[in-house]
């Protein structure tokens, strides 16, 4: 009986390993971006969070731009945010309106990041607890959202904004800015 127990102690982990390898192998080459955003088509969630540059000042949805903008969730601890940042600076130079959500970051680290790499945002709010990011359906930083003048989220970009996806994002922002289109047409164009 002891020999059979020892045998099972080795067989069970081996079987689990083989099953995991087969599952991972089957996923090779398949798209990894899964966008199950519950906020697309919904108004941007309400918030009252401190302004990153002046934490004594609370920002709300009323402080957001009255035109389509990109809401970007970032953190100084996020390696991909460093990769994304130069492209955000290019967008800033072109006049693309962006608001930052600094996610789970210590204030000195976040401010040092913006001081060193420059600030592409109209302003950033501080989401130290991460609760607002959860309301947005965040899966991990960086993530961005195209928000219309009506406060509705029209697109959720998982991962970095860059050359490879900017044409689609820009097209969405242009469509969202078209006052002649209704909300459903804008949503359809942004998907």
UniProtKB/TrEMBL annotation:
Subcellular localization, as worded in the UniProt entry: Cell inner membrane
GO CC aspect terms: outer membrane-bounded periplasmic space; plasma membrane
Domain of life: Bacteria
Stretches that traverse the bilayer: 7-25
InterPro entries per the UniProt record, alphabetical: Periplasmic_diS_OxRdtase_DsbE, Redoxin, Thioredoxin-like_sf, Thioredoxin_CS, Thioredoxin_domain, Thioredoxin_ResA/DsbE_sf
GO molecular function: disulfide oxidoreductase activity
Gene Ontology BP terms: cytochrome complex assembly
Domain Thioredoxin: 38-182
Membrane topology reported for the UniProt record: Single-pass membrane protein
Pfam family, one: Redoxin
Protein keywords: Cytochrome c-type biogenesis, Disulfide bond, Membrane, Redox-active center, Transmembrane, Transmembrane helix
Protein family according to the UniProt entry: Belongs to the thioredoxin family. DsbE subfamily.
NCBIfam families: dsbE
UniProt name for this protein: Thiol:disulfide interchange protein
């Amino acid at each position: 009986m002891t020999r059979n127990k020892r045998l099972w102690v080795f067989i069970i982990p081996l079987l689990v390993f083989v099953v995991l390898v087969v599952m991972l192998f089957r996923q090779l080459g398949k798209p990894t971006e899964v966008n199950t955003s519950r906020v697309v088509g919904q108004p941007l969630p309400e918030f009252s969070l401190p302004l990153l540059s002046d934490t004594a000042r609370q920002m709300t949805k009323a402080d957001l731009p009255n035109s389509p903008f990109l809401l970007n969730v970032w953190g100084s601890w996020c390696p991909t945010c460093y990769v994304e940042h130069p492209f955000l600076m290019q967008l800033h130079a072109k006049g693309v309106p962006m608001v930052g959500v600094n996610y789970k970051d210590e204030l000195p680290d976040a401010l040092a990041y913006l001081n060193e790499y420059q600030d592409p945002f109209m302003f950033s709010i501080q989401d130290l607890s991460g609760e607002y990011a959860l309301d947005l359906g965040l899966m991990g930083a960086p993530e961005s959202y195209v928000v219309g003048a009506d406060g509705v989220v029209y697109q959720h970009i998982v991962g970095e904004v860059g050359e490879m996806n900017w044409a689609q994002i820009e097209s969405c922002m242009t469509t969202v800015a078209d006052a002649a289109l209704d909300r459903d047409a804008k949503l359809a164009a942004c998907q």
